[in-house]
């Protein structure tokens, strides 16, 4: 008996539980709708392009195997975006699709303390890669706010997409439930409002606005709360009120909760109640994908050749924001000089962004490991790698330890937290101090600079 699309997809979802976690099936596969099953192809619609791309990349192979087994013939599982979603402009995510003859309800009033959301920060424009697979959890938050991963705490270095993910959650929640009251603020804004509230004796109004009139609470850069005792007290009670009301909380920071100095233990505990997820530096393939997405968004396919995109991706390894900045600078540079964009022009335009040896035409080098950095520095300064990782603070170990931390940060683009863990579990402030101290000494001590340069060259030729 030939199965129809609905029956086959039902069997596929059941069989997929052998290979795919049930939480992921609930988040990504249950919201889909089987459309057709003809000629060995099962077509399934997804609610948006982000879900389509995610399912294709993560689950298509496994689902094809299950479908082939269930149907008793070779079956390909193909995803496509629901037709009604394709017709909706991306900028219209906050507005429900109009129904002919039905008067639209007035939009929920904008909270006066909220910052505006960036219309480009949606899931459809977020580029998936190994460094940010937490996007799955972010999408789950948007699908069922307040049900799981609450609070959702995202941390990582600047410019890697934390704010993009946070705002994408807000856009998706508002698209699904247009009446949602979204409050997006930076921690600095919250601090300033508390100060003004205390001074102007308007704390009652502030508490009502934050605790009673919010369904989705988004706070950027919560690490700025460090050391602010009065503000932390207010934030603690605000957090409790929103959480106990079953509302979703999303937070971002440049470091995990336990690594934020001067943050009260009770706040650290609450920030870790849900999910703490990090965003890492993108690898080469991910950087290329990010630049191609930028190329597609701004219709630059004929303006910037693929080989130039690859050159930029290989040469700039810091963060997404800088990658996009390179595109803007290159376009301006080419316009001012009335030249077509090429690798040679890119090398000229982005000279200040390229480090020695960062050249797409150069022979590919494999970056050293953190262990190799420790081994090279230890040997050159006459100590042992174990000594660099120890708790000892004697000068013979402190200086090479600081140099190794500096080189790990510079060459490997490691996060401060990761570097600290690699050197005996030190906190991020110790790493920052070490990097700053080495940079300062490099500028005033020629002999020191030559020794560090020598170690760097050895590591780059490994």
Assign a percent range to the helix content: 40-55%
State the CATH architecture of the largest domain: 3-Layer(aba) Sandwich
How many distinct folded domains?
Answer: 4
CATH class of the largest domain: Alpha Beta
- Spatial strand sequence of the major β-sheet: 5-6-7-4-8
Kindly describe this structure.
With 462 residues, this protein is α/β, with parallel strands linked by helices. It has four domains: 5-86, DnaA, N-terminal domain (GMP Synthetase, Chain A, domain 3, 2-Layer Sandwich), CATH 3.30.300.180; 123-278, P-loop containing nucleotide triphosphate hydrolases (Rossmann fold); 284-349, Helicase, Ruva Protein, domain 3, CATH 1.10.8; 370-460, DnaA protein, C-terminal DNA-binding domain (Chromosomal Replication Initiator Protein Dnaa, Chain: A, Orthogonal Bundle). It is 52% helix and 9% strand. The chain is built from 21 helices and eight strands. The chain has helices at residues 5-16, 22-29, 49-58, 60-71, 83-86, 135-143, 162-176, 187-200, 203-211, 229-244, 265-271, 284-297, 306-315, 320-337, 343-349, 370-380, 385-389, 395-412, 416-422, 428-444, 446-460, and strands at residues 33-38, 41-46, 76-81, 152-155, 182-186, 216-220, 248-253, 275-278. The protein has a five-stranded parallel sheet with strand order 5-6-7-4-8, sandwiched between helices. A three-stranded mixed sheet has the order 1-2-3. The N and C termini lie far apart (62 Å). Mean pLDDT is 81; it is low at 87-113 and 356-364.
């Amino acid at each position: 008996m030939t199965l129809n699309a609905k029956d086959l997809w039902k069997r596929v979802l059941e069989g997929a539980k052998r290979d795919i976690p049930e939480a992921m099936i609930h988040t990504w596969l249950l919201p889909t709708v089987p459309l057709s099953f003809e000629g060995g192809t099962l077509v399934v619609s997804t609610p948006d392009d982000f879900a389509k791309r995610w399912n294709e990349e993560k689950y298509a192979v496994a689902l094809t195997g299950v479908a082939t087994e269930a149907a008793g013939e070779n079956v390909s599982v193909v995803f496509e975006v629901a037709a009604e979603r394709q017709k909706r402009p991306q900028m219209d995510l906050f507005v429900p699709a109009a129904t002919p003859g039905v008067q639209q309800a007035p939009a929920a009033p904008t909270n006066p303390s909220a910052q505006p959301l960036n219309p480009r920060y949606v899931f459809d424009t977020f580029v998936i890669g190994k460094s940010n697979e937490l996007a799955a959890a972010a999408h789950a938050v948007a699908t069922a706010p307040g049900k799981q991963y609450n609070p959702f705490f995202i941390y990582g270095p600047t410019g890697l997409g934390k704010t993009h993910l946070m705002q994408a959650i807000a856009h998706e929640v508002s698209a699904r439930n247009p009446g949602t009251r979204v409050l997006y603020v930076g921690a600095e804004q919250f601090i300033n409002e508390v100060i003004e509230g205390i001074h102007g004796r308007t704390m009652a109004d502030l508490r009502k606005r934050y605790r009673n009139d919010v369904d989705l609470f988004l706070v950027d850069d919560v690490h700025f709360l460090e050391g602010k005792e009065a503000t932390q007290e207010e934030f603690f009670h605000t957090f409790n009120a929103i959480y106990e009301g079953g509302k979703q909380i999303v937070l971002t920071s440049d470091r995990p909760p336990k690594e934020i100095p001067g943050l009260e233990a009770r706040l650290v505990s609450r920030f870790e109640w849900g999910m703490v997820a990090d965003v890492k530096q993108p690898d080469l393939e991910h950087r290329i994908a990010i630049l191609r997405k930028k190329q597609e968004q701004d219709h630059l396919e004929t303006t910037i050749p693929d080989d130039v995109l690859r050159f930029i991706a290989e040469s700039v390894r810091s963060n997404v924001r800088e990658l996009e900045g390179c595109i803007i600078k290159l376009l301006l540079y080419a316009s001012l000089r009335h030249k077509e964009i090429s690798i040679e022009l890119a090398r000229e335009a982005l000279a200040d962004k390229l480090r020695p040896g960062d050249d797409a035409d150069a022979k590919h080098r494999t970056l050293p490991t953190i262990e190799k950095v420790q081994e090279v520095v230890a040997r050159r300064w006459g100590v042992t790698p174990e000594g660099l990782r120890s708790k000892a603070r004697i000068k013979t170990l402190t200086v090479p330890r600081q140099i190794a931390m500096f080189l790990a940060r510079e060459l490997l683009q490691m996060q401060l937290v990761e570097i600290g863990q690699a050197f005996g579990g030190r906190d991020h402030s110790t790493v920052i101090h070490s990097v700053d101290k080495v940079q300062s000494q490099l500028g005033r001590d020629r002999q020191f600079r030559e020794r560090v340069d020598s170690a760097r060259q050895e590591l780059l030729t490994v």
